[in-house]
Write a structure and sequence with these properties.
Blueprint: H1 6-36, H2 42-63, H3 75-102, H4 105-112, H5 115-126, H6 133-151, H7 162-180, H8 186-189, H9 191-207, H10 221-245, H11 251-256, H12 260-273, H13 279-297, H14 299-308
């Protein structure tokens, strides 16, 4: 066992931030996909990206000699893997797109960013670990920044249908589970194997709803390019980077750094689809960056917390 050092904490924070930026970028490419090809559905995109990414990850795992089948010899690991797939990966992807489908992207982003609060509640109830004052302020500040970015300050637009809240809350739970459930698997079996099998299980489960090959989607060269970006950058690389970050930082920290996702999505939306920024976008971005600085500057409290909880040690 080795306690997380300051250097490792900073490294893990950078990894989690990079993953969030990749997710924000891929969110824009998926949005471009839906606009360019009306035949695409959230279910079809999730199925294709999960299964393709899973195959790539498991092949890479085998090439690196990490024995991807080893995880299936551990009964407890299999249970954790199922939890990761069904409670983490499916909600964080499919439920998010369903929220967009029934509502809109701003509402979906707000509801999904409730994930840090779900994790904080989990640690408070099951670990009897209350968040520090700085962590609490950081969470609230980051949420406020996200709120301003996705609503432009028009809070009266948050009245949503129950079905939107239903899918959005499931998405937020997925964010929390996506950070919590693989923490015991990754140090033992590696990020590639854990994420690859999780993606394969989740993608296969979604195919039970309707096999993707039964839904005929004509693809242009642009569609294929956007799909490859979504799969390789927004799925394979992003999930591996994020899963690896959990070796170095707590789930609460990793999920807070997801605040870079809406910031990234806004930036790339302006760059790629010429979305016009309003004043609230800049204010929200500043608040998110401020929240990240606050949480990463509270290292002494985090180190103390790590020493009290052996689960947060690096193997």
């Amino acid at each position: 066992m080795q306690f997380i050092s300051r250097k490792n904490f900073i490294f893990g924070s950078v990894l989690a931030s990079v993953a969030a930026i990749m997710w924000g970028f891929s969110g824009v490419t998926v949005s471009m996909l839906f606009k360019s090809n009306p035949a695409m559905t959230p279910l079809w995109v999730c199925q294709v990206r999960m299964l393709t990414a899973a195959v790539i990850m498991l092949i890479l795992c085998q090439i690196r000699g990490e024995h991807p089948l080893q995880i299936w010899h551990d009964r407890q690991a299999i249970l954790n893997l199922m939890a990761y797939a069904f409670l983490g990966l499916i909600p964080v992807q499919y439920c998010y797109f369903k929220t967009v489908e029934y509502g809109n992207a701003p509402i979906a982003t707000i509801l999904q960013f409730l994930g840090p609060f779900v994790i904080t509640l989990y640690y408070s109830v099951f670990k009897r670990q209350r968040p520090t004052l700085v962590e609490t302020i950081g969470l609230l500040t980051a949420f406020l920044g996200t709120l301003l970015i996705v609503t432009h300050g028009h809070l009266t637009q948050l009245a949503v249908a129950p079905v939107v809240i239903f899918w959005g809350v499931l998405s937020a739970i997925g964010v929390a589970a996506n950070a919590l459930t693989p923490r015991k698997l990754i140090p033992k079996y590696g990020a590639l194997s854990t994420t690859g099998w999780g993606m394969l299980i989740a993608g296969s489960a979604l195919n039970l709803l309707r096999p993707f090959w039964q839904h005929k989607v004509p693809l242009t060269g642009v569609d294929i390019g956007l799909l490859l970006i979504t799969i390789l950058i927004g799925t394979v690389i992003a999930f591996i980077v994020y899963a690896t970050s959990l070796l170095y930082i707590l789930p609460t920290t990793a999920t807070l750094l997801d605040a870079f996702e809406p910031l990234s999505a806004t930036f790339f939306a302006v760059l790629l689809v010429h979305t016009h920024l309003q004043q609230m976008d800049f204010i929200g971005g500043i608040l998110i960056i401020l929240a990240v600085v606050m949480i990463t500057s509270n290292l002494p409290a985090l180190f103390s917390k790590l020493q009290r909880h052996p689960q947060s040690k690096v193997h």
